[in-house]
Amino acid sequence: MRRPGKRWYDDSSLIKVPVIVCATSGTYAGNTYHIGDQRLLDALNAGFVAKALRMGKEFMPLTEVEAFLPTGKRSAIPCIYVRKSNIYFVGEKKASQSGPAAPPETRRGAHLVRKKTQAGTEIHMPPYLLQGNVHIDIWEEFLDTIDRDLRFMPLTDVKVRPALPGGASAFEFVAVNKDLIAYIAEAAAPPQ
């Protein structure tokens, strides 16, 4: 029997992040979490701690979920845990998509800033095509950046085709599960 009390996601040290999760089992719009000194990408790759419990290592927690299943069924679910190995990508909703911006006291602190260059990229993960930008450290090559030993890689200014159930097709930030990528193509440099 479960003990009564607060749920893990009532932990005041957590930051709620509105996301859309595209997985092999469906598309889920809801909220995930990370702690104050993390980014969404860090929580996806390493998990986080809530109420002294290690969370999110193999399963991504989501609350207040609107589920779009492959059968076309749509349902509301209070809390689910999506297996990370089945996630194609996680798109962070824009402030305009999710309501007002987080209050200043919940915004994450500054992270170490490294000089990077931007490379246009196409990621093929059938049935999806993602077009966006990979950010490469100035001393690295494209392959160094995409071949890191992390499950999720960041992509910015992303267009998704076909559009996801619910109509989402553009994101400022997406974390892509490298295990489900068929191939990545570096966009050709624009003609000079």
What does this structure look like?
With 192 residues, this protein is mainly β. It has a single domain (13-95, 114-186), classed as SH3 type barrels, CATH 2.30.30.100. It is 8% helix and 49% strand. It has three helices and twelve strands. It has helices spanning 40-46, 95-98, 142-146; strands at residues 14-23, 26-35, 48-50, 53-55, 59-68, 74-83, 87-92, 116-125, 128-137, 152-161, 170-177, 183-186. The protein has a ten-stranded antiparallel β-sheet. Residues 96-109 have low confidence and may be disordered.
- Strand composition percent: over 45%
How many extended strands?
12
CATH architecture: Roll
- Quote the distance from N terminus to C terminus: 67 Å
Average per-residue pLDDT, rounded, comes to: 85
> What is the name of the CATH topology?
SH3 type barrels
Biggest sheet architecture: 10 strands, antiparallel
Q: What is the class in the CATH system? A: Mainly Beta
